[in-house]
Design goal:
Layout (H helix, E strand, L loop, with lengths): L4 E7 L3 E8 L16 E5 L19 E5 L11 E3 L4 E4 L8 E3 L1 H21 L2
Parallel strand pairs: 3-4
Antiparallel strand pairs: 1-2, 2-5, 2-6, 3-5, 4-7
Length: 124
């Protein structure tokens, strides 16, 4: 898939908050400078890819995405950065690629709220 990949989340009147999906230059969450604990594997295949040996702090369960077009795939090194909010205004065109699998939605919401709470504590 090409372009900026995000997982859209909380909406307000003028924008949605998205979380970026990236391979981080083919290094997954092990890229230098990243907080591995804020990331999780995101995948579109039947089974979740294995984490890299260097992803020692990647403790969240992988999140499955059901694609609209099954010929599309996420790279096995795709990681969802739950700690990085990315605003997307409502007037920006987006392309729906898929939806988080129902079996993983509860875990995703838990991680989202956990990381949001951790972020807000930095600013108090």
């Amino acid at each position: 898939m090409k372009g900026l990949q995000t997982l859209l989340g909380r909406a307000s009147r003028v924008e949605c908050t998205a979380k970026p999906i990236s391979t981080n230059g083919g290094k997954g969450a092990a890229k230098k400078g990243l907080r591995q604990g804020e990331h999780t594997i995101v995948y579109t295949t039947a089974e979740a890819p294995q984490r890299l040996p260097s992803e020692t702090q990647l403790g969240k369960i992988p999140i499955k995405v059901d694609l609209v077009n099954p010929s599309e795939k996420l790279d096995p090194l795709s990681r969802l950065n739950l700690g990085k909010p990315y605003p997307v205004e409502h007037n920006v065109k987006v392309c729906k690629v898929g939806k988080v699998s129902e079996t993983h939605m509860r875990a995703l919401m838990h991680y989202y709220h956990l990381e949001t709470q951790n972020r807000s504590e930095w600013y108090t």
